[in-house]
Each structure stands twice: as structure tokens, then as C-alpha cells.
Here is the input.
Amino acid sequence: MANVAFLGLGVMGYPMAGHLKKAGHEVTVYNRTTAKAEKWASEHGGDFKATPKEAAEGKDFVFSCVGNDDDLRAVTIGEDGAFHGMKAGAVFVDNTTASAEVARELAKEADARGFSFLDAPVSGGQAGAENGQLTVMVGGNADVFERAKPVIDAYAKMVGLMGESGAGQLTKMVNQTCIAGICQGLAEGIHFAKAAGLDVEKVIGVISKGAAQSWQMENRWETMNRDFYDLGFAVDWMRKDLDIVLAEARRNGARMPVTALVDQFYADVQKMGGGRWDTSSLLARFERK
Here is the structure.
């Protein structure tokens, strides 16, 4: 069992930290809103600290799951950031969906300070975090990965080393690209079925057993058909992720015409007031006036 810290107790981090505690690790948490850290500590029996630096001091592993590149820099190399308190030989595991650029930057900084950094974004959404069934895509040194994997396993169903620093984030970009395209295809398919006078339930019942099957189809067709989107992964978050994807594509020369188009469709959903709706809300563009 390890002595760990977890920085960031949002909808993902809160249950992830809980799974680490349930697995028997000693867990100290930090959250920008201290009241939430206090609540977590009260519920799970762990400890909390007022700054990332204090939370990280003396820990074997420090985890983070925050909002974006700027938030990640703030809790690592910012004033009272975790990097100022980590001991030599420790491992920082970042579960934030961020850029590959910041992952490489922080890995280099960690190495200079005598500890290690893994970029380890996750997929599976809030339900996956709550159930300890996340997919974790990791970039970094193979030896460090092998040390960290048994601890990461506490909240994961799949943990894979994808390559050097930044490879975890790049893999997450592929993940989000595929989800965006599938959501748009599913939205258009349901919209077409309705326009054609078909029974959507019967259509999905048949095509979900064939090549059209997807996680989104299995888990979102019914709520989409009911025009209900107050669940799941928010459009605001997906747009943040797609912005990272498209910025990386501009750097590496990848052509992403469909991804760029779906990103604009999500912008339309935001204009409709759906920033906190689930990503399946692309259907609302067709059906809400």
C-alpha cells in the first residue's frame, strides 16, 4: 500500500480518490474549494491539506485531475504547487485531459527535480469514475509506469502505456475525436429515423447488434430519443478537449475536417444553452427550435 495525495476533487477526482482509499492506500486530498476536501476526508477517513505542496509532501504518488493546462500548472509548478513539496523518487500521475505539450513540459521539470511524471488521462466519464472502471492512457517511462500501475488499478479497468511523455494525452485526443464523430453520426441517424417515420426503438434494437453498434448507441439512444441531456460528459468539456485536438493537429499536420465541423456543432449547442448537457445533445440541434 502506498502513501498518496490526490489533487482536484471534481466529478471525476472525488470518486477516484475514494477508490484509492478503499484499496487501502493512505490518501491526502487537496481541492481549490477547501470545503469539498473536508467533505471528502469526512466521508472516506483520509486527510486534507490547504495547498498542493502540503498534500504532496512525503508522498510516494501524487495524483491530479483538474480542468486544463493552466490549472495543471497551478497545482504543480505554481506557488505552493505540488512539485515544490514532492520527495525524490516519487511519482506524479496526472489524470487531467490536457495538452501533450504541458505533459512533456512537466515531465522534464519533474526529472530535473528528482522525481517522475506520468500523463495519464482517463476515459469512462463520471459513471466510470464512480464505479472504478476507467480506461487510463499513460505516457512516460516504462519502469515508472510499472511502479504506478498497481496503484492506478484502484480506479481503472484498463491501464495502458502508450509511449513516451505526451503519448497518453495524444491517445486521449484520438479517443475524443472518435467519440465526437460517433455522437454526430448517432444524432443524424436518430433524426433520419424519425423523419422517415420509423420506430426508433425498433431501429436501434436491430442495428445495435450489427456493425453500427457503439457505447454511445447502447447508453445514449434512449435519452436522446426522449430529448433528455442532463447527464454524462458535458459539451463544455468536450469543446475544451476538441480545442486541444485541433491545436495538436495544426502542429502535427493531421487533417481533421469532421472533428472541426462537429466542434462547431457543439458550439451551436452551447448557444442553445446546452453547455452542461451531455455530448449526445447534438441531436438537439435538429429537434429544438
About this structure: The first helix runs from residue 13 to 22. Residues 110 and 207 are 49 Å apart (CA to CA). The chain has a mean pLDDT of 97.
